[in-house]
Design a protein that fits this description.
Elements lengths: L2 H6 L2 E6 L4 E6 L4 E10 L5 H6 L6 E5 L23 E3 L16 H7 L3 E4 L3 H11 L2 E7 L8 H13 L9 H4 L5 E3 L1 E5 L3 E4 L5 E7 L4 H9 L2 E7 L4 H6 L4 E4 L10 H12 L4 E4 L1 H9 L4 E17 L5 E12 L8 E7 L5 E6 L4 E4 L14 H15 L1
Parallel strand pairs: 3-4, 4-5, 5-6, 11-12, 11-13, 13-14, 14-19
Antiparallel strand pairs: 1-2, 1-7, 2-6, 3-7, 8-12, 9-10, 15-16, 15-17, 17-18, 18-19
Bound molecules: glutamine.
Glutamine binds next to strand 16.
């Protein structure tokens, strides 16, 4: 614990809907925020996590105790703003150092109007969430000079209780772009930064349900130009763009109420155009194929989750961020399990047996996390190649 921090930052309160209260220091914007409190076990990558649109209406607690020591930069962003509803950490180092650093984590949170709390026992909080399941919470970040009172604590508990449940929430259309745009940026390289795809072989249409930029970069890197379309784009409009492949992005909220996407994807898969889905995209492909999804107890959020490829036997360490999963008992005959989580045996990958369509629950684009399972992007490219040459 860096004792000097306590005086430098005003107090903050974290209240859970079940009445559990933590007191710490406000390291972000002053004010109140509510959301589903989830824990993420990644040791680094807090900027990518904060900007991941899939964290919309979720407050993230990082289990790694020391967060902020490399500051933030202009490159490690998965969207153009912070999407997480709030941040909870143990210890904020007072010195941030990195050759790309443009600001400290605290400055970034303030600029992004994000409420955040430090100096709480994140191990205790995580054990609580693991035992009782993810639940709603509220962070109250006080202004300099304000003090914690019982009335403020009661206000935070009431706000946590009043926050909407994640089950049944359609957030994909909330975070999605409103206008179609073109994407050609490729992966980041030390010394060169991000590249540009100037000789594309394929045209991919990507549904933006809350897409992470690194997914688009990894698809572009493999020879594609990408047209990113809003979540509610009808299948007919996608077909007019004459795609060689269709991509279904990650995104926040419950997949089940996304009926517009489920029906469009059902139609698109039938055309035989290669289709690849990640996370929410995986869940939507499963729903479009007739399977069911369910809410997990506390989900998977981290960068060290072992996943087994059932075809090759190969185990990959993967990046994960989901609170819902596909029910393996609900799979129709034409949907085959391809990957499972070695943490809890839940479904991680699926492939259609009758169409060139497959999907993955975790994050092959990492950002943050390991790249063990980036071969899924190569699989998508290979399907497009085959389809183009057929
Ligand atoms: N990262 C994602 O796409 C998350 C999918 C979905 N919102 C879930 O929590 O399961």
């Amino acid at each position: 614990m860096l004792l000097s921090l306590k005086g430098a930052f005003p107090p903050a309160i974290l209240a859970l809907a079940d009445g559990t209260v933590f007191q710490g220091n406000s390291i972000g914007a002053a004010g109140a925020t509510t959301g589903e409190v989830v824990f993420n076990t990644s040791m680094s990558g807090y900027q990518e996590i904060l900007t991941d649109p899939s964290y919309c209406q979720q407050i993230v607690t990082l289990t790694y105790p020391h967060i902020g020591n490399y500051g933030v930069n202009l490159e490690d962003i998965e969207a153009d703003k912070i999407h997480a509803a709030g941040l909870i950490i143990k210890d904020l180092p007072l010195v941030a150092s990195n050759f790309r650093k443009t600001a400290t984590l605290s400055e970034y949170l303030v600029a992004g109007k994000t409420v955040a709390i430090a100096n709480i026992d994140t191990r205790k909080l995580t054990r609580h969430l693991r035992t009782h399941g993810a639940q709603n919470g509220c962070i109250l970040g006080l202004a300099q000079g304000e003090t914690v009172t019982q009335a403020l604590i009661d206000k935070a508990i009431a706000a946590a209780k009043a926050a909407p449940s994640m089950s049944g929430l359609d957030l994909a259309k909330v975070v999605s772009v409103k206008q179609t745009y073109e994407w050609n940026q490729t992966e980041w390289k030390l010394g060169a930064g991000y590249g540009v795809q100037i000789t594309p072989k394929f045209h991919v249409v990507a549904y933006d349900f809350g897409v992470k930029k690194n997914i688009l970069r990894m698809i572009a890197q493999r020879g594609a130009r990408i047209t990113v379309v809003p979540a509610q784009t009808p299948a007919a409009d996608v077909l007019k763009l004459k795609p060689d492949g269709i991509f279904l992005a990650n995104g926040p909220g419950d997949p089940e109420p996304c009926d517009y996407a489920i029906s469009a994807v059902k139609e698109l898969i039938e055309t035989g155009i290669p289709t690849f889905g990640i996370c929410l995209g995986h869940q939507i492909m499963a729903l479009a194929s007739g399977a069911k999804t369910f809410k997990m107890k506390f989900g998977h959020h981290g960068a060290n989750h072992p996943v087994k490829d059932l075809d090759s036997g190969r185990v990959s360490i993967t990046s994960q961020n989901h609170g819902f999963a596909v029910d393996e008992k609900s799979l129709p005959a034409n949907l085959r399990p391809t990957h499972i989580s070695l943490f809890d045996n839940t479904l991680q990958g699926l492939a259609r047996t009758d169409k060139p369509a497959f999907c993955f629950q975790g994050h092959p684009e990492a950002s943050p996390g390991p790249h063990d399972i980036s071969y899924l992007f190569d699989r998508f490219t290979a399907l497009m190649e085959k389809h183009k040459n057929a």
